[in-house]
Write a structure and sequence with these properties.
mainly alpha, single chain, 12 helices, 2 domains, Receptor-associated Protein
Amino acid sequence: MLITILALTFVAVSFGVYAAAYRPHAVAVRQRVDDFLSEQPAQVAGKGRLAEPVFGRLVVPMLRKLGGILYRVTPKGIIESTQRKMDAAGNPTRLGVLEFTGLRLLSPVVLIPLSVFSATWLDFSYVVSLIWIAGGIVVGLFLPDYALQKYIEGRQSKIRRALADVVDLLAISVEAGIGFDGAMQRVTEKLKGPLPDEMGRVLEEVRLGKSRGEALRDMARRTQVSDLVSFVAAIHQAEVLGVSIAQVLRVQAQTVRERRSQRARETAAKLPVKLLFPLVFFIFPALFVVILGPGIIQIAPVVFKVLGKH
């Protein structure tokens, strides 16, 4: 009965989501408008839609519809926090806050039938099946946020590793007579990664009318990397006080490299502790068997013979 109810619930939710995401009359109206405005509307529109990946044509609209349902009842603080996390993660898979909110709702719905199927296939008892299904729901609730946090940590790690090379290139370019904006443009052309992409976004915002200091501070707030925040603060202070940018960049390059070296030493100092568990439970037993095994095999008959006499 429990499996039947869950299966029917999943089918009903799936049909509801499909009905909300796919509106034939809206699609037909849009098709007629495209036919009217373009010279070859049917071919161009059809090729454009078919050229999009399946994720963009089917999954993203469904997530947007689900996100709209949950978005209305979500507090504003949670929405703003999610937006900051999405910016720090670099908007993975090009999903917005609305689509990610829908993913939060869809994830437990998808994991419910998977949990039911796996519990039935593994032949769990009734109590264990309920615990298994509840665990699947909990995992579905926290899985999107956990994946987003992993994206954030990975991107921040890439930014920290690339910051020293980026600052070096900025310093060399400025010392060669190029302006700071031109130096950032060279970074976006010569290097690849999250930090050059962020600097490219800074240049785009400056072209659209935002001041360079404000665009740099927005970049620091988006990435949430302490080293980059310190670098942006030093650049802003140099501009305010009229200090040479080349001199500041040279000092920042040395400082960033020292911080990277310190982090490398800290990571190396943690390795013995991390290696303790595999050494004790996996490597030492194998060594004991190889080293002491032959001796134990030779001594065991003598010991058993002596104990047998007593």
